[in-house]
Design a protein that fits this description.
Layout (H helix, E strand, L loop, with lengths): L4 H58 L1 H11 L25
Length: 99
């Protein structure tokens, strides 16, 4: 059976519509992924900001200005005087590695 002109026209029309449908699907998918990527970037920026805030709060809580008053009131500790500090020399040949 030999295909006539209108059959070729229908075949090409279906092929072109198939390609156009594929292009629309691909662009729709890429737009959705780009939107998700933007959302993830915003979330990452927010999480990095929260992380830096938490690190700042940790450094602040570890500071001597915060720990000394807290230790005095809650643990009833005090800072030693200079005469109370004794430096112990390490034995000769010890590298100080703790092994």
């Amino acid at each position: 059976m030999k295909l006539k002109g209108r059959h070729w026209f229908v075949i090409w029309l279906v092929a072109v519509l198939g390609v156009f449908s594929f292009v629309v699907w691909r662009q729709t998918t890429s737009l959705r992924l780009a939107r998700e990527l933007g959302d993830l970037r915003e979330r990452r920026i927010a999480l990095e900001g929260r992380r830096s805030d938490l690190l700042r709060r940790i450094r602040d809580a570890e500071s001597r200005a915060k720990l000394v008053p807290w230790a005095k009131t809650h643990l009833h500790l005090r800072l030693p005087a200079d005469t109370e500090i004794i430096l112990l020399p390490s034995p000769p040949g010890d590298s100080g590695g703790g092994r």
